[in-house]
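Field notebook, page 137. I keep forgetting to write these up properly, so this time I am using the form the group agreed on. The chain and the ligand, zinc ion, are recorded exactly as supplied. Prediction of the bound pose follows.
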Amino acid sequence: MSDARLSGRCLCGSVRWTATAAPVRNLICHCESCQRATSSAFAAFLGFAPHAVQWDGPKTDYQSSPGTWRGFCPTCGSRLYFRSDKWPEEIHLHAGTLDDPAAYTPDRHVVTAERVPWLDQIDSLPTDDGFGVAPKR
Ligand SMILES: [Zn+2]
Ligand SMILES: [Zn+2]
């Protein structure tokens, strides 16, 4: 990847990050922990060397298992990163926080044994450009 200045922010904007080097991983993780931590079906990550990420704003973290931390904004709750003593040379930032979502190109699915089964069906669902579908009654 040529863009060495990827950047992102949380929902409220009080925490920002800027990468000074290219990502070393672009993973979509399907593990149950990522599903629960992000309240979503999977988590898309960019992996960087920890020293290649500059942070601006107050962030905090939750130790989800011994030696593993999941960072988030204490104001709005947006998930920001995953890091673990198992992989001290990397910090994984959530792709959903990118300023430019199009700057992300995932290249691998991981922990697919825990993938939610309904993902198989979503490409065949009806689509709507807006959110204008009335609820079923
Ligand atoms: Zn925030
Ligand atoms: Zn995971």
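OBSERVATIONS:
- Helices lie at 32-38.
- The radius of gyration is 16 Å.
FOLLOW-UP: compare against the apo run.
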